[in-house]
Amino acid sequence: MKVLLLAAGRSRRVKPIEDKNFLKFFGMTLIEHQLSRLERAGFKDILIIAGAHNIEQLKKIAKPFGAKVFEQKNLDDGMADAVLSVEKEVGKDDLFIVSSNDIVEVKAYESMKKALKSNADSYLLAYRVSEYFPGGYLKLSGKRITGIVEKPEPGKEPSEFINLVLHIHRKPAKLFAELKKVSSTRDDRYEVALDKLMKERNFEAVPYAGYWQPVKFPWHILDLLKYGLARTKRKIHKSAQIAKTAVINGPVVIEEGVKIFDHAMIQGPAYIGKNSVVANNALVRESMIGDRCVIGFSTEVARSFIGDDCWFHSNYVGDTVMGDDCSFGAGAICANLRLDEKDIGESGRNKLGPVLGSHIRVGVQTSLMPGIRIGSNTMITSGLTIAQDIEEGKFVSGKFEIKIEENRAKLDSGKREEMKKKL
Amino acid sequence: MKVLLLAAGRSRRVKPIEDKNFLKFFGMTLIEHQLSRLERAGFKDILIIAGAHNIEQLKKIAKPFGAKVFEQKNLDDGMADAVLSVEKEVGKDDLFIVSSNDIVEVKAYESMKKALKSNADSYLLAYRVSEYFPGGYLKLSGKRITGIVEKPEPGKEPSEFINLVLHIHRKPAKLFAELKKVSSTRDDRYEVALDKLMKERNFEAVPYAGYWQPVKFPWHILDLLKYGLARTKRKIHKSAQIAKTAVINGPVVIEEGVKIFDHAMIQGPAYIGKNSVVANNALVRESMIGDRCVIGFSTEVARSFIGDDCWFHSNYVGDTVMGDDCSFGAGAICANLRLDEKDIGESGRNKLGPVLGSHIRVGVQTSLMPGIRIGSNTMITSGLTIAQDIEEGKFVSGKFEIKIEENRAKLDSGKREEMKKKL
Amino acid sequence: MKVLLLAAGRSRRVKPIEDKNFLKFFGMTLIEHQLSRLERAGFKDILIIAGAHNIEQLKKIAKPFGAKVFEQKNLDDGMADAVLSVEKEVGKDDLFIVSSNDIVEVKAYESMKKALKSNADSYLLAYRVSEYFPGGYLKLSGKRITGIVEKPEPGKEPSEFINLVLHIHRKPAKLFAELKKVSSTRDDRYEVALDKLMKERNFEAVPYAGYWQPVKFPWHILDLLKYGLARTKRKIHKSAQIAKTAVINGPVVIEEGVKIFDHAMIQGPAYIGKNSVVANNALVRESMIGDRCVIGFSTEVARSFIGDDCWFHSNYVGDTVMGDDCSFGAGAICANLRLDEKDIGESGRNKLGPVLGSHIRVGVQTSLMPGIRIGSNTMITSGLTIAQDIEEGKFVSGKFEIKIEENRAKLDSGKREEMKKKL
Q1: Chain A positions in Cβ-Cβ contact with residue B364 (cut-off 8 Å)
Q2: Cβ contact (<8 Å) for A337 and B329?
Q3: What is the mean pLDDT of residues A71-96?
């Protein structure tokens, strides 16, 4: 069996995060986590579909997994083009199509494998939802899938199962043939072909009620982080230098070369990447810190995803997602709650900080408002309140008018002594 | 004897604090403290004069003390109307009139009680002042009060005693009669009647040199707090969870359900109300924190009165008074000292923060200047410097112009490694 | 031998620092350090050249060293006028001219002394440079100096030695005579005279490769501080009060009467002057703090020179130089790094904070940008970003427009309880 891992998507909705496949969670990219889960479930023959924008990086990652990488030329064409681009490679093998957009547990892959014992032609993972989800619902007749209803009206769902892209097609020659028949001007050729095949062939639902996390929007990164952190077990690398007065509480992973300074606190679950520094009086809680970061004096990082090489200094960073090489001047703040405490944008969360790409500099005392997106390679000067999205590669400054007059005030030097007594 | 506790005042000068009677000091409202002090001094039969605005709440508070509540209809009419409204209830009993505006020690009430051994018709508490105070001075002939001089010129005080409203009138029928004679268009009918009666009857001064604190202006709340804190004895509820690295120093009361996180510090005298949290690296000193507050990471609260349900996060709150349900974004600051170190407004203090009502939200990085008043139900957005009073129910925002250009700066990735070595 | 210590310079380039001679390093002024080093090298007969602006203070300082102070009338006239003003006093003694602008080790003075064993007429300290320095290079013939080349083109230096003003002239009558011959309209009369004398007389180079630090620009103060701190040995005065949870790490000098509060940290090398307070959660590292300072709650002072009587409160102060009696409101920040991480001004450093004179007040939340100069007796109000030099005696304020509307937002009181669970 060949596994087709679809990784060519351009992650537009997750912007300013460049490519979610390469987001590093706990020292490993998301796509590596997926490859590793497939490997653990016993799938060995993996074909990765890349786009021109990420093929080189995917090739590097694929190598140690023995996976092959293929380029999808027409990225607007969706799954059909991706599947057809490996027709020759798959030949007469079974085909397991897996999207890199959906994070599921190893047992989801294992269930797919076990399901093969039956005699069906195709197998689709059927994710049981407990409340309405705007996805494709499976029309079922017993275990047999007879159709997929896209975003039915709430209350009119044909079942409690939605379709996730974990699809096995035995002897997929028919699938290839059908895909070619659908007009290539449509972007849902795969879905149309599937619908056609379901009428003729035996599609079996493989029920799954475990963890599932789509990674479409930036806040999904925080959801995924939370899931990962909840499974963290305490592990402190022997090379880590931890000051006596620092407090490391609960399930915390501290990697090689990390330094934790006096009066710092890591409140688990948390992950501190290689060679990072958590400086005096800093607090990291329910967060992932990448490699070579500096969580400077009196900084709090809470429930946040922080890439590699990020620097903070007396900052508050809450419910924030950021890529690599972001640096904050002293006192800069990532706000994460509206004054009216309403949900932020379309995130469905009332706590969400800004989302930052990579290679960003933020000046001292600048505040980034909840949910805004800051593009990569951007610099924002000091003392600003940024309440809008900023595209990548920008230099953002403010206009400050100051008035300079003669100072007529006289200071009474005695008062300080009085004040000092009250310290 | 009936005690008439005057609590109908509308606390206009203490705005934006809504009703000083209900200010909770150390878990008990100011009016309950007063009722309790009267009870301890042996006064049992208490009539409370309320206004339409506070009668319901006063009734609830009165109940456990067995006190009765009467409504004063015409609040502009001052004490006369209040006294007359209980004429029937008092009947032939002696009448002890007590203002809720003046906080005195139990021994003041006890002195009044002891004074009754003599044969006078009325007794007025005579507060000994050591320096000029703009109030009503007693004209004395021995112990006998022959008149009251309102705000005499400094140096022309008839005695060193001023009149506080702790007045006992034996068989007050004459007082009632006299009050009715005075034209009802005047707002000083009680004072006019008293003046008349003093000529005919024996008014005795009851000297008192103990603690007295009027509660007219918001900063009086801080004065009262300081007095209360100075009498605090260390008491930590057994249910409180205090991290090992937290430091609790001196006379500190920590109530039920409080949590103190690592590296936090409470420097007594201080009071932390029920179920409040003092988070990592926070410092509370010489302050009262109400119930269910969160003193978040790296916040300092110094010499402040904080109501219930207030939330802070990396804030500085100094010499500040605030009601309930106020919440500050990270980095917001309550400034408490002028640059020229002069006294703030008419407070006579060079350290005074802002005064806040209830249900207020302040955005990240916003500063409230010394002595300003922020009305209840107000929201102030991020990054502002507020240097004026804000009425209640307002939404305050700023105007920020930012300039967005192409970022032409190039970063030298090597520099960070150098900087890290210097950490 | 008479030592002539030139201290009349007006320190213009070190502005807003008033007079570098009186900068206190580790409890002693720079000029006292110099006098002390001369004393240690065995020089006893010291004449200090002062200007009208600093003669009184220099006289006080000179006294315990037994040094005499002379006034140079014409400060624009450079060294010649200074030297001639002590002609009578020097008489037939040898003359050792030392500039207070150059800080060298005791061994430089000792080398000068030892050199006297030879038979030369004059001796000049010859500082060996390893890379190009825009100064006066010595033209040598063996040990003999035959001329001085001012700022030669790089690559055209006549030797690897530059001239520092540590010059001994034996029997200086000829020098005095020569100085008088040069036209008094020139400001380089001393140099012209020297050039002339070198042709006729034997000038010997005294090689020196030890520490040399000119003090021309404010950042030189930080260079000097770094040098001094590197030589610090741990010494904690017995009267200092240090909280149990405070951490004092490495070579730290803590003077008499200092108080260090809980969870504070001093990371050596560092110096804390007499009667200063390092409050809760503050961090001082690689810095010198003057006397009677208050390093308030959660302040970080890093690699900075702080004069006497300075107050901080939740500030970041990095790579900053400030005089006496400067006070920062909560949250004010001394920025020390450009967003593009380039060198700051002409300092050759990529980390440099602002430079402040004395008697300065900075409001809450105000940021001072890297490398700017703030003159003495200046006040800067709250919430500003100051990106330009400010002259002395100014009052700097901002213009904030706020918009006040009715608050139409409704708060959902239930949300807070949910949020609290996530703390």
Answers
A1: 316, 333, 335, 367
A2: yes
A3: 88
pLDDT at C413: 66
Q: Which two tokens stand for residue B70?
A: 């009467």
Round to whole Å and give the CA distance between B133 and A364: 48
Interchain pair B298, A294: CB under 8 A: no
Mutate to test the interface with C, among A278, A341, A343, A390 (most CBs of C within 10 A): A341
**With an 8 Å Cβ cutoff, are C243 and B247 in contact?**
yes
Mark yes or no for CB contact A365/C386 under 8 Å: no
Gap from A256 CA to chain C (nearest CA, Å): 24
**For residue C16, cis peptide bond before it (omega within 30 degrees of 0):** yes
- SS3 letters for chain B? CEEEEECCCCCHHHCCCCCHHHCEECCEEHHHHHHHHHHHCCCCCEEEEECCCCHHHHHHHHHHHCCEEEECCCHHHHHHHHHHCCHHHHCCCCEEEEECCEEECHHHHHHHHHHCCCCCCEEEEEEECCCCCCCEEEEEECCEEEEEEECCCCCCCCCCEEEEEEEEECCCHHHHHHHHHCCCCCCCHHHHHHHHHHHHCCEEEEEECCCEEECCCHHHHHHHHHHHHHCCCCEECCCCEECCCCEEECCEEECCCCEECCCCEEECCEEECCCCEECCCCEEECCEECCCCEECCCCEEECCEECCCCEECCCEEECCEECCCEEECCCCEECCECCCCCCCCCCCCCECCCEECCCEEECCCCEECCCCEECCCCEECCCCEECCCECCCEEEEECCCEEEEECCCCCCHHHHHHHHHCC
Q: How far apart are the first and last CA of chain A?
A: 74
pLDDT of residue B231: 95
* B407–A398 CB contact, under 8 Å: no
Interface of B with A (CB under 8 A): 243, 245, 262-263, 280-281, 297-298, 303, 313-314, 329-331, 339-342, 350-351, 361, 363-365, 379-383, 398, 400-409, 411, 413, 416, 420, 423
Chain A nearest CA to B148, separation (Å): 38
Instruction: For chain B, list residues with pLDDT below 70.
Output: 413
CB pairs under 8 A between A and B: 132
The minimal CB distance from C281 to the residues B281, B335, B379 is found for: B281
The pLDDT tens digits of the residues spanning A330-339 come to: 999 999 999 9
Q: Which chains touch A (3 or more CB pairs under 8 A)?
A: B, C
Q: How confident is the model at residue A73 (pLDDT cuts 50, 70, 90)?
A: confident
Q: Which residues of A touch C311 (CB under 8 A)?
A: 416
Neighbours of chain B (3+ CB pairs under 8 A): A, C
- Of C265, C377, C409, nearest to A339 by CB-CB distance is C409
Asked whether this complex has an ipTM greater than 0.85, the answer is yes
Asked if residue A29 lies in contact with residue A37, where contact means CB atoms within 8 angstroms, the answer is: no
For residue A253, the model assigns a pLDDT of 98
Residue A273 has a pLDDT of 98
- Nearest-CA distance from A308 to chain C in Å? 18
Q: What is the pLDDT of residue B410?
A: 80
Summarised one tens digit per residue, pLDDT across range A171-202 is: 999 999 999 988 777 778 898 899 999 999 99
Cis bond upstream, residue B158 (ω within 30): no
Taking the model in full, what pTM does it have?
0.95
Tell me the per-residue pLDDT of A345-398, one tens digit each, with 9 for 90 and over: 999 999 999 999 999 999 999 999 999 999 999 999 999 999 999 999 999 999
C-alpha B315/C-alpha B303 separation (Å) is 14
Of B249, B337, B396, the CB nearest to C402: B396
The ranges of chain C with pLDDT < 70 are: 413
